[in-house]
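Weekly puzzle thread! Below is a chain. First person to post its structure in token form gets bragging rights.
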Amino acid sequence: MGFKTGIVGLPNVGKSTLFNALTRTAAAQAANFPFCTIEPNVGEVAVPDPRVRVLAEIAKSKETIPARMTFVDIAGLVKGASKGEGLGNQFLANIREVDAIAHVLRCFDDPDVTHVEGRTDPVADAETIETELMLADLESIERRLQNIVRKVRGGDKEAVQQERLLKAAAEALEAGRPARSVAVDTEDAKAWKGLQLLTSKPVLYVCNVDESDAGEGNAHSAAVAALAAREGAASVVISAKIEEEIAQLDADEAAEFLDELGLDEAGLDRLIRAGYDLLGLQTYFTAGPKETRAWTIREGTTAPQAAGVIHGDFERGFIRAETISYDDYVAHGGEQGARDAGKLRAEGKGYVVKDGDVLHFLFNSG
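Winning reply:
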């Protein structure tokens, strides 16, 4: 189950520097987990989670495989992208394919780095891109409404539902609000997702600051945090320059470098985790002598659905899931200890998997 976060931003905001740091970090991790760069602008990175190593040590696993996030470096954007300016059409096509948007904003002042608008104003930059996406959505909605007129008149249930949702989105957009601000009922969720509206995707604002502001941020990043709070979005502070340097160091050197800067962890770790949280993702584990592996699922996933992430046959033939919480697995020294202490539970089809569950699935292969 792949989850993609698209990295977007205006020219000269540090987007490429950040993506290059991500991909170099990913390349360095290649020895530890299956890594591939599908295209030059797509990279996979491990989700930082110390629990994987702890479980692997207890289970004496030969291999350790963390959860992964995919980041896509999306073509640069300029004003007028919704009308095809610059690489507008390519930008809009790429952004439809991602699950969330990491919007890199320039939160540093540097006279040597030209800003496309001639000033540093990250909130205005965010609004520029949001406006282009909203205009593209409105155009798409108008076209789709015209295309389903005949079906709606004929009483086609799907078309009637689609028309209702498109009109709700149009109303929000015309009021200057993104489509993600629309409250969608559970029964409409699948149809809503099928609309593939650009502004319905969750947004993470990435505040690219100077090295000196990497710890606490600055006035620019504070303004972005306020914007994110108003929108129900998320924000994270990061210094692309620092991340670029860290990406070229080994683990010990990186830890020493971060310590010298007074930072607890790399900004990329915060970015990856923020992307994970933004998408409503969580992790469950499988652990044994062969491998310990972290599996990514959405919050609210049932045991059979979680089994299906490993293999479709596991979901189809699901019988039950032997479940141990992470804390119990660690406290009792592994599966046997947890079983002896009565901490292993047999869960059926209705069980909703919790973050950190260590699972073993029983299924009918016939």
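Puzzle host: Confirmed. Bonus trivia for everyone else. Residues 28-38 have pLDDT under 50 and may be disordered.
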